[in-house]
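It would be a great kindness if you could assist me with a short task in structural biology. Thank you for your consideration; the sequence and its tokens are set out here.
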Amino acid sequence: MGLSFSTTWRAGGYANAAVPRRADPASLQQLGGQTMGTTWSLRFDNPRMLPLAQVREAVDTALGRVVAQMSHWEVDSNISRFNRAPAGSRHVLPPEFAEVMACALRWAEASDGAIDPTVGPLVACWGFGPEAQDGGLPAAGAVADARARTGWQRLAFDAAEGSLLQPGGIALDLSGIAKGFAVDHGVEALRALGLADLLFEVGGELRGIGRRPGGQPWQVQIDSEPATARRIALTDMAVATSGDRWHQRASEGRRWSHTIDPRTGEPTTHALASVTVLHAECMQADALATVLTVLGPDEGFDFAERHDVAALFVRHDEPSSMARTTRAWREQTEE
């Protein structure tokens, strides 16, 4: 039986995909590449020995479609054109874009705005994203001006038509959800090729479908501490992590993370280091990880319990071995 492939999580992140092992069967193959300013990796059982170029093309096409629609770093993307559009204009979105907007707005409403697809001006104000303002710590007036240009309630989204109104000055930012959708979209493209057993990852967000050759589930190793390392199975499940460990800025004696609370216009200041979420869809896991990170260790935990979210919370002020888990997490990770 082939050895398991696992991706290592280190208290709020994932290591790179593992290399093939001697015991792996020839049909267990891997590919990787770059996208969205990060990397993607794929491990898959290829019993029909499809050409790797064909598999790579399917992934690249799917990921390219997400970038072309939802990357605010691309000036000609659908989202960038919407952000530049005049007030009062209505835009029919591509189906994938509309699906992501529907998910983002659903969780914006459920969380009272802890995730907000209009957060773009605030992200830029605090020095992140393609429109980042590099003037150091923003003035209170600048933050107030950015907040005045946000508000998910201003988006008149027609779900049936898949159209969105630009009320004027709105700058969408789907960074808290689009990468997870890209994982799902890539998985569907691979399924269309007839592949049924695979583990696909984009920038640390993963989704596993089917099983490894030999019948064992795909696994992710949660490596909070060597003495407490554990693995979770990704059998038709996805996992996403959000936190403040990776992107930070500092100015005038203050340090802040890229996690902006749209409700206050300020970066989060609570003790939460990261949240990891399990869900059948990576888009949902990504969105929920964003929501819980903004809400923090207490409000976020209560929200996760109310909404039956499988989540693991790691705090800055506690060792990773004391990570707090929701009821749904424990139920889904029991061996």
